[in-house]
Amino acid sequence: MTAIADPRPSINSSVYDLSPGATSTDVRELLEVKLMHLEAMLVMTWGVGGETFRKQSAAVQDSFMRS
After folding, report:
1. 22 CB contacts (<8 Å, ≥6 apart)?
2. Does residue 4 lie within any of the structural domains?
3. List of E strands, the chain
4. Which domain holds residue 30?
5. Is the model's pLDDT at 54 over the cut of 50?
6. In total, how many domains does the chain have?
7. 6-44 b/e (C-beta count within 10 Å ≥ 16 → b)
8. 3-state secondary structure of 7
9. pTM listed for this prediction
10. How far apart are CA 48 and CA 9, in angstroms?
11. pLDDT for 15-47, tens place per residue?
């Protein structure tokens, strides 16, 4: 995964981590990003794409879950 350039110095976008100078807005935005990632993974593994996901090999499923 390639890190997205972020002009805000309080968020380290390469690992989605917060720096000590993070504001409450930074924390909220980080949580929103993490929740969007979780929702996307749930859709692919449990929701609409769940059946297709389960038909993939164990190696593909493991790789996806590590992402």
Report:
1. 10, 11, 30
2. no
3. 11-12, 17-18
4. 11-66
5. yes
6. 1
7. eeeebbeeeeeeeeeebeeebeebbeeeeeeeeeebeee
8. coil
9. 0.60
10. 37
11. 567 788 889 999 999 999 999 999 999 999 988
